[in-house]
Amino acid sequence: MHRQAIGLIENGDWEGAHNLVQDESDTLSCLLHAYLHRDEGDIGNAGYWYRRAGESFPDNSLSEELERLKSML
User: Fold this and answer.
1) Which of 17, 30, 57, 61 has the most CB atoms around its CB within 10 Å?
2) At the top level of its lineage, which domain of life is listed (predicted)?
C-alpha cells in the first residue's frame, strides 16, 4: 500500500494517494499523509500528521522529503 501511495504521488494523483493513507495509523502512512497535506499547502494539517508519526515538521524540500519516505519502504 505504501509503494502504491508513493507511485500515485509521483504520478500526480494526490487524491488517490490520500485515499490510500487517510484511514491508516502506522508511522509511514502518517508521514505520507503529512507529506500530502504539506504538498497542498495545508501546513497545519501536515504538522498534525507529522506529530502523529512522532516526528517534528521537517526542514527539507518536498522532493527531499519524498526521497526520505521512499527510503523507509
Assistant:
1) 17
2) Bacteria
Mean pLDDT confidence for 50-69: 98
Max CA pair span of the chain: 28
Alpha carbons 69 and 19: distance in angstroms, whole number: 18
Q: Is-above-0.85 flag for pTM?
A: yes
CATH of domain 2-71: 1.25.40
pLDDT at 39: 97
Distance CA 34, CA 48 (A): 7
Q: What is the mean pLDDT of the segment spanning 26-39?
A: 98
* Mean pLDDT score, 67-73: 97
Residue 15 to residue 56: CA distance in whole angstroms: 24
Q: Residue 43 is placed in which grid cell?
A: 501546513
